[in-house]
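Progress report, Aim 2. The chain analyzed during this reporting quarter is listed below.
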Amino acid sequence: MLFEVQATLPHPNEKDEEEKTDQEQDGSEEKSMGRISREELYSDVSSGSEFNTVFIGLVLLSTLVAGVGLVRDDVAVIIGAMVIAPLLGPNVSMALSVTLGDLDLGWRSLKTNAVGIFASLALAFVMGLVMQVDLESQQLINKTSVSLGDITIALAAGSAGVLAYTRGVPAAIVGVMVAVALLPPLVNVGLLLGAGYTNLAVGSVILTTTNLICINLAGILTF
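Predicted structure tokens for the chain:
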């Protein structure tokens, strides 16, 4: 005789399956909150070192806005420029290239950084020629000398930039911090040179160089 199968042994344990699913979800959440793999990190960071039209466009736009803000002594406008400045990627990738000894990534990062800096300086120089640069602007004067506070901000920005990639911190937010240390003094150099204030421009060059070194040094140590 044949009987229709009504049940199976052992019975499926739905509770165990639910617990397993919950554990898998918890594990994936923990992984997402921890450090990402080296391959993922390299892929994310190296993409930020690529030079393209979007990068140069954002550099020019942020320079234009920052220049107006510096001349008008308007902090809000300067902050707006730092929001769109694409300076995080090339500097983090440069720090990673030094950490890994990756010459190819280092060269690409250096090239992208150099082109961005040159483009920003060129536009700021033209703005200095055509705009009335008033030395009464406190924002202009503040960017002509190096202080302990400037160094602290640059070091913190470098570490934060690395954490943005390794810990999932929103890069757009951290990018503003990196731009705080680099964009205003860089634009200040071009404005002052264009306006003929060479001595003050030298101070801005020193500040920009110091901040650039501190950002990359902090990034290397954080990696």
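Residues 38-222 form one domain. The radius of gyration is 25 Å. These observations will guide the mutagenesis work planned for the next reporting period.
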